[in-house]
Amino acid sequence: VTGFASRRQRRPCGTTRTPRPHRYCLDGRVPDAAGHGKRHAWAVRSSWEGLSLDDHMSDVEAFCAAVGASDGTVPVDLVGYSMGGATAFALAARHVNGSAPAASRLPVRRVALLAPALLVTQELYAMTLSVQRHGGVERCVYNYRTEAEAEEMLRLVGYAEPLCEKLAPVLAWGRRDQPPDLWWKMWRGLGGVQAFGEGEVDAAVDAKRAALASSGSVLAEAATPVLVVQGSAELVVDASVPREVRRAVGSACDVATLEGSATAVTR
Fold first, then answer.
1. pTM for the structure as a whole
2. Do 114 and 83 meet the contact criterion of CB atoms below 8 Å apart?
3. How far is the C-alpha of 245 from the C-alpha of 249, rounded, in Å?
4. pLDDT tens digits for 227-247?
């Protein structure tokens, strides 16, 4: 499952079925996430206010149903990067604990998370709550529109300076026809901190930690294996996320740290 503001790359969307003894193995990559890539056009209307984590989970569920992964016969390994990691983690808990409808329940076998956006840095929460209160969507780094703003975003996720300069014009060009607040709405919806005021960063962080712990406890009870991979130079996802996931999931969780790396660049 892809990350926030990411486009699917290299490998086309779709599935392959490989014969195995007594069963089939289905290998699929979810296409551009809801609101991303060619799928943003349907969201461009004045009343649209973004997509929540629940919306992204439902989108992945619909994909799995469409490719036959929710018929209960094929074990499902969920792999997600950044926003996709947060989606995969919460989705796994929803299906492992039986809260998803039985007819469409995913038989989750394993979960792999690459810098999962279960908790971003306090600076990003503070920015989100400030823009939410005072406006100025250009202050949301993921809402970049100009080349200079695109360069700032690329630096944040860890790209080398020469690449920032080369990629920024392409990224800015890709947003030339999009509404000026589209990606701010996307970011705010994913963050799920609309109920908090500008000075309530700690409360917003505590709420996200509680949600992480709740999903983790479900996976711990089911002994669902979880792998968390994160770069030590990661600047978007909070550095505490791997240990928070390990604390919640317990012995079923393994953590791998990419020393000196920003996760987005090494993925």
1. 0.85
2. no
3. 6
4. 999 999 899 999 999 999 999
